[in-house]
Design brief:
Blueprint (H helix, E strand, L loop, with lengths): L2 H14 L3 E4 L6 H11 L4 E5 L5 H5 L2 E4 L2 E4 L3 H8 L3 E7 L6 H13 L1 E2 L2 E2 L3 E8 L13 H4 L3 E4 L6 H13 L4 H10 L32 H7 L7 H12 L1 H14 L5 H6 L10 H14 L5 H11 L1 H14 L7 H9 L6
Parallel strand pairs: 1-8, 1-9, 2-5, 5-8
Antiparallel strand pairs: 3-4, 6-7
Length: 347
C-alpha cells in the first residue's frame, strides 16, 4: 500500500488502540506521517528511539528502600505521563533494537507496561522501521513480538499518485516551490521500465543492492534540499548531490536554470492578461506554485486570470494550493466565479 493508505489505516488502528508497526524503505515519510496522523486525531505524540538503550535502561535504575527494591521510572515514561492521559507513544527504528530490548517491547505491546511501569490506557503504541533488505541496520523481529502488532507495509513512492500526494504535503510544509515544481516534473518515472529511454522517478530512487550508495533521492532528502535550494550557484550542486546523489542533483541544477527563466510573480499579477506564459511544464508548475503562495484577497482575481491562460491543470493546482494556505480566499468573488466554472473540482 502507499503511504497515504497506510496512514489512513493507522488512524483507524489508533482509534481502536491496537499496537501498530509500519515497515518501509528509508526516507519515505514514515516518521512525519505518524506524527501528523496523531495530530490529525488530536493526540499528542511522544517519539522515542530505543535502539540506543539497553533492556535495563527501560526497566529503570534500582532503588533500595529498607529490605526491598523498587525501580525508578525511565525518563521517557515520566515525560509521557506529564503530557496527559491520552497520546501516541511512537517508537521509531523499532526493529533496529537489540534482541534484548525486543523482550520489553513485547511486554509493552501486549501488557502495556515495561517491567513494573504501566502505560496509561489512553496511550496508543506505534512502531516503525526499515526492511532488512534496505541495509538500514534493521534486525529480524522475533515472532513473539511480531504477533502482538498490526503490521502495515508501505510501498516505495514511485507512482504519479505518490508524487501528487507528496506535492500536496510539501506545499503545506513550506517546501521550496522550486523543489516542489521539480518533483512534480520528475518525481514519477518517464516511460516503461526496460524500454529505451526509460528514466526512473526522482522522488524516490533507492537501490539497496548498491553497497556504495550514500546519498539518494527520497522524500526526506528532498525536504532537506529545500533548505539549500537558494544556496550560491558555486556550491549548490555539491550540496544537493550530498543529499540526493550526483545524477538527481545534476537534473535539479538544470531545472534551476529553467526555473529562473519564469516571469516574476509581481509582473504577472500586474499584467495577468499580457504576461508571457511559459511553455515548459516544469516552469508552468513553478509559476503556479509561486502564484499560490503570493495570492491574497486583493490579487486573487489576477492570479486566477493568468493561470487560466496556462492551462486547466495548473489553474486547479494554483487555486487549491492558494485556498489551502488561505481559506479566507473562498469568500472572494474571484473564487466564487472560479468555483462555478470548475464545479467538478473538490477542494
Amino acid at each position: 500500500m502507499n503511504l497515504h493508505t497506510a496512514l489512513s489505516a493507522l488512524s483507524e488502528a489508533l482509534k481502536a488502540n491496537i499496537p501498530v508497526m509500519l515497515h518501509g524503505a528509508p526516507g519515505i515519510g514514515k516518521t512525519d506521517g505518524i506524527e501528523s496522523t496523531a495530530a490529525g486525531i488530536k493526540l499528542p505524540c511522544l517519539t522515542e528511539v530505543l535502539a540506543t538503550m539497553e533492556a535495563v535502561d527501560l526497566r529503570g535504575l534500582p532503588c533500595i528502600t529498607g529490605d526491598s527494591v523498587s525501580w525508578s521510572k525511565p525518563d521517557f515514561l515520566a515525560r509521557l505521563e506529564r503530557m496527559g492521559p491520552e497520546g501516541v507513544l511512537f517508537i521509531d527504528e523499532a526493529n533496529s533494537n537489540a534482541q534484548s530490548v525486543q523482550v520489553p517491547l513485547m511486554q509493552l505491546a501486549w501488557k502495556r507496561q515495561i517491567g513494573p511501569h504501566e502505560i496509561p490506557t489512553g496511550w496508543r503504541i506505534v512502531m516503525a522501521g526499515n526492511r532488512q533488505s534496505d541495509r538500514a541496520a534493521a534486525q529480524r523481529m522475533g515472532t513473539a513480538l511480531a504477533n502482538r502488532l498490526l503490521h502495515l507495509d508501505i510501498d516505495p513512492p514511485n507512482s504519479q499518485d505518490d508524487v501528487r500526494a507528496w506535492a500536496k504535503w510539501a506545499a503545506g510544509a513550506q517546501i521550496h516551490p522550486m523543489v516542489i515544481a521539480f518533483i512534480m516534473l520528475r518525481g514519477g518515472p518517464n516511460g516503461v521500465q526496460g524500454a529505451p529511454g526509460y528514466q526512473p522517478g526522482l522522488l524516490f530512487d533507492f537501490r539497496p543492492d548498491d553497497a556504495n550508495a550514500r546519498a539518494f533521492p527520497t522524500p526526506r532528502a528532498w525536504s532537506q534540499v529545500s533548505k539549500i535550494a537558494d544556496a550560491p550557484d558555486a556550491v549548490r550542486l555539491h550540496l544537493v548531490a550530498g543529499l540526493v546523489g550526483e545524477k538527481a542533483a545534476c537534473e535539479f541544477e538544470g531545472f534551476v536554470q529553467v526555473y529562473r527563466s519564469a516571469p516574476p510573480v509581481l509582473s504577472i499579477i500586474a499584467n495577468p492578461a499580457g504576461a508571457p506564459v511559459p511553455t515548459q511544464p516544469g516552469v508552468q508548475y513553478a509559476v503556479s506554485l509561486a502564484l499560490a503562495r503570493a495570492a491574497n484577497a486583493g490579487n486573487f482575481s489576477a492570479v486566477l486570470q493568468y493561470v487560466r491562460r496556462v492551462g486547466r491543470e495548473f489553474e486547479i493546482v494554483t487555486a487549491t494550493d492558494a485556498i489551502r494556505r488561505n481559506p479566507d480566499l473562498t469568500d472572494t468573488s474571484a473564487f466564487i466565479d472560479w468555483a462555478a466554472r470548475n464545479s467538478d473540482v473538490t477542494i
